[in-house]
Amino acid sequence: MQPLSSPEQVFAWCGRAMRTTGVDALFALDRQLGQIVRTTVQPIVGQMRLTWWYEALRALDYAPPPAQPLLTELATRVLPAGVTGSALAPMSEGWEILLDDERSDAASLKEFARLRGGGLFAAVGCLLGATSDLLEQAGMIWALADLATNVTRDALREQARATAIALSEQAFAQRWDDARMLGALALDARAAMLGQGAPGGPRRAAAVARFRLLGR
Question: Would you say which domain of life the source belongs to (predicted)?
Fold first, then answer.
């Protein structure tokens, strides 16, 4: 298993800059929520912080953002493209699953991936004009692979890795059309789980280029 290439690098391979599309703000939101989980000592405190973000994101749909830079970024650069705060809020619920030791089964792990990665990639797809049914699968693969390379619990790491690989086998048996840029992120995540190529390296770049050309 290898680390994932950064989203910025994969986007660059696809000839797009995250900053110009507003996608960078969405990945910054994901990092913000993940940082809460990583720095939480008492789960109840982490849950309270994630609940604050859940409510703050929902409130973007009907009120000006508070004096918080990331919420302002989302309100000014993401919501005008058609993404709602209510659609982003469940990402916090996905991250919250990792704070509950009793929710460590396979079903809960997939729910984490769906809420975190599926929600993130659906929002990114909206900004990029991608509507493929494969967006959720791409997001789940990416979220699980990212978790596998950052978690310290051996059992959770192996379960996330195995689930990401299994989902990717199903997803990449299909043809990707307008979601190829997000599919490229999932493809890089699959390569990382299989230990294929270094993050940001030429082997990964060549695989993305081929995928962008052929759609599978």
Answer: Bacteria
Longest dimension (CA), the chain: 47
Q: In this structure, is residue 157 part of a structural domain? A: yes
3-state helix, strand, coil in the chain (%, to 5): 70, 0, 30
| Residue range of the domain that includes 38 | 7-214
Does a structural domain hold residue 20? yes
- The pLDDT tens digits of the residues spanning 77-88 come to 999 999 999 999
CA distances from 22 to 86, 123, 163 (A): 18, 10, 30
The string of pLDDT tens digits covering residues 27-71 is 999 999 999 999 988 989 999 999 999 999 999 999 999 989 999
Here the CATH number for the domain that contains residue 38 is 1.10.600.10
How far is Cα 142 from Cα 189, in angstroms, rounded to an integer? Answer: 6
User: Is residue 123 a part of any domain in this protein?
Assistant: yes
The tokens 């990402």 sit on which residue? Answer: 91
Concatenated DSSP letters of 107-148: HHHHHHHIIIIIHHHHHHHHHHT---TTHHHHHHHHHHHHHH
- Tell me, yes or no, whether 1 lies in a domain: no
Structure tokens at 171: 């997803």
